[in-house]
Amino acid sequence: MSDQLQELLKKVYEEGVGKAEAEAGKLMDNAKQEAAKIKETAQKEADQILQKAKKEAEDLKKNTDSDLKLAAQHTINSLKSRITDLILSSVYDSKINSDLEDPQFTKQVILQSLEAWKSHSQDATISLPKAMEDKLEEQFIASMKKVLDNKLKIDFLANLKQGFVLAPQDGSYKISFTDDDFAMLFKSYLRPRTQKLLFEA
3-class SS at 166? Predict the structure, then answer.
């Protein structure tokens, strides 16, 4: 009886151990599969994160390159514009100033302007620099008034340095022929040509 019991216990033990080992093997296989899945998922996520980071880095590089190019182009354009202004100012501002300081030149421009004005209006007020009051002889003043059939009022202004300003006597508008106006007119016309000469050689 003891041998049979011993045998039975041994058989139960072996079956139990066998089942436990089989169960442990299944658990181990499941754990390995689960670990492999987790590793695969983690790898996919890591790859996605890496791809996203690479794309963001590339986009950032493109945007930075684009911003740098725009900034460089803007700086170059500003520099070209500044150089053009300096050249135009050095060449034309002094010339315009000297021309407008010449009473004969100013008289000629005034008379031509009054002739052009006559076709649009019969009366006018002309404002001249106070400094020119002593330089305009009575004969010239008479010739200015004659152009508009004596409907010309003449003012001499202390705050007007060079050139002159024409306006109808009701003051509804004015046309300015000051040194700044001439400079702006010449520079706007000459700016594209000057830039072409300087920078498109």
Answer: strand
